[in-house]
Amino acid sequence: MADVDVKLISPDRTWTWRTSQPSVVVAFPVSPENECPVALFLHGFVQMPTWYRTMLKSIARKGVIVVAVQLYTTLHGLLRIVNEQEEAKRAEVVIEWIFSEASDTTSLRGTINQQIPFHNSLTIVAHSRGAAALMNMVLRPTNANKPTLKALLLLDPVGSIDVLDQRPELPQEMVIFGCRNGVAPSQSSDVYWTKLSGAGYRPLFIELEHFGHLDFLDEGMKSVGNWFAGWFVSSDRNENRRISSRNKISELIGIYVTAVCTGGTAEGASSKVRTELDPFEDTLGMRVREFLASPARSSNQLDGLQPAI
């Protein structure tokens, strides 16, 4: 298992009303054997990237550099001062910082102070409402220096997916982790899976029977936002299974990201995930949902569903 390091980088004060540079948490392998894929992690509703340290470190152990951006503060989230368009802009600032060639702290290379080679491609992992920010990012104009978007991994996504009507350029490599203890009552992961399937994509859908919407966060993490969200979502009350599931999900993310960023196909990456998941299907309640050519519920039937948070 690779050694990893975690750095909290705050180019500006996190709790000011308008920050010019978003704070980030970076988890990276200390001595990678090969070029590292880069994954941008977008947090959920009224969360902070520091609350996902366990997941970030577990993904990094698979040889992935993970950069988690602070899209807004908990206070901003509760007061809804920001929107998905502003969140997308903040994420793009961090993407420019990641791939900058500078050797000082104005780049990822300079900040971690190591000659770690990494691919000029990007994978995005988004939890909850981070998926809404992601969907707004893909609609923004591209430029020649923008890295190739290789894959999307959505952790119980919440928020509008109407951007599909505008035919954005999305990669075929997609994974959705859908919690049965998810966001009530809309089951937004089902909405994403159905609409993406209806738009011609074939996302790998992994159903999490026991794992809850907020179980992606570190153990024991408490906040005003989590207390508020706790009224709408459930958690796996079996502590050992909850911890094991979080670790396994992180491993699967690392395996998938590494596979697609080193020349693999979506089918090949999905096959590796299935192989890794098979022994744990029953003990953790994690199963792959098979793709349906004609989903039971059409996108029109799901248009009226709104997330609870």
What does this structure look like?
With 309 residues, the chain is an alpha/beta fold. The chain is 33% helix and 20% strand. It is built from eleven helices and nine strands. Helix 1 links the parallel strand 3 (36-42) and strand 4. Helix 1 (53-60) packs across helix 8 (239-261), helix 3 crosses helix 5 and helix 8 runs antiparallel to helix 9. The longest helix has 23 residues, at 239-261. Mean pLDDT is 77; it is low at 11-19 and 293-309.
The share of residues in extended strands comes to: 15-25%
Q: What's the N-to-C terminus distance?
A: 37 Å
Helix percent band: 25-40%
Sum up the overall morphology in one term: globular
Q: Mind telling me the C-alpha Rg? A: 18 Å
- The side-by-side strand order for the widest beta sheet comes to 1-2-4-3-5-6-7-8-9
Largest sheet: 9 strands, mixed
Structural class: alpha/beta
H/E element order: EEEHEHHHEHEEHEHHHHEH
The strand count comes to 9
- Model regions low in confidence, pLDDT < 50 over at least 5 residues: 11-19, 293-309
Q: Total helix count?
A: 11
Would you tell me the overall average pLDDT?
77
Brief account:
The chain has 309 residues and is of the alpha/beta class. It is built from 11 helices and 9 strands. Helix content is 33%, strand content 20%.
What is this structure's SSE topology?
Blueprint (H helix, E strand, L loop, with lengths): L3 E6 L14 E6 L6 E7 L10 H8 L4 E5 L4 H6 L4 H16 L8 H5 L5 E10 L2 H8 L10 E8 L18 E8 L6 H11 L5 E9 L11 H6 L9 H23 L4 H12 L3 H4 L1 E4 L9 H4 L7
Parallel strand pairs: 3-4, 3-5, 5-6, 6-7, 7-8
Antiparallel strand pairs: 1-2, 2-4, 8-9
Helix pairs in contact: 1-8, 3-5, 8-9
